[in-house]
Amino acid sequence: MPSPVPTTEWPYRDRVPNAPMEAAEVVRVLARLEAARVDTWIDGGWGVDALLETQTREHDDLDLVLSLEDVPVFMDVAEALGYEHVAGMPPRSFVLVDSVGRQIDVHPVSFSEERGGGVYIMENGSEWIYPTAGLSGRGKVQGHAVRCLSPELQVTVHDGYELTEKDYRELDLLHARFGVAIPQSSRDRAEP
């Protein structure tokens, strides 16, 4: 099953202005979403760092998984925080950027007990399932408890697309801390 991460360069990586997504902003966004009763799970680099309970690198964005039903409330909260919708459209992934260039990538899902988790519609129209067990991750950002993808699901979403050195490092950190198995495709990478 392919990863839900786009295989082409995601929009707005070279945005101007461009600012990293700092831990304090992650906490601010998540606190406002929690106050609005929008359940979110951190995916991507911040999801790995939340599991590790420490920031290991600078992050270009914040990847969030949330219910498709919560998108209207999410958008209201994000706009109140100064974020503007710039790319994509639900039910697929979409992107918001604020005036200083911080970016949030949203992966909306429709929860289905029959399907065993959150059904995500990828850019090519196919479906990918965020398994319910994979949404059990718990971590911390700046000491604040957050929900994130489990270590096992973080490894799964890293499989199926061309990894960069930061991705390999994240896999190594997840393996070292949680003992999760690294996919054969990632272990076979050429060493420098």
Provide structural commentary:
- The chain starts with 22 loop residues before the first helix and ends in a 5-residue tail after the last helix.
- It is 30% helix and 27% strand.
- The strands form two sheets. Strands 1, 2, 3, 4, 5, 6 and 7 form a seven-stranded mixed sheet that branches. It has a two-stranded antiparallel ribbon with strand order 8-9.
- The chain is α+β, with helices and mostly antiparallel strands.
- It is built from six helices and nine strands.
- Strand 5 (103-112) and strand 6 form a beta hairpin.
- The chain is globular and about 40 Å long.
Give structural attributes.
Beta Polymerase, domain 2; 192 residues; seven-stranded mixed beta sheet; alpha+beta; single chain
Biggest beta sheet summary: 7 strands, mixed
Residues in helix, %: 25-40%
Straight-line distance between termini? 28 Å
Q: Which architecture does the CATH hierarchy give at level 2? A: 2-Layer Sandwich
The fraction of residues assigned to DSSP E strands is 25-35%
Please, how many domains? 1
Order of helices and strands: HEHEHEEEEEEEHHH
Uncertain runs:
5-9
Count of alpha and pi helical runs = 6
Name the structural class.
Answer: alpha+beta
CATH topology: Beta Polymerase, domain 2
What is the approximate shape?
A: globular
> If you compute it from the alpha carbons, what radius of gyration comes out, rounded to the nearest whole angstrom?
16 Å
Number of strands: 9
Mean pLDDT equals: 90
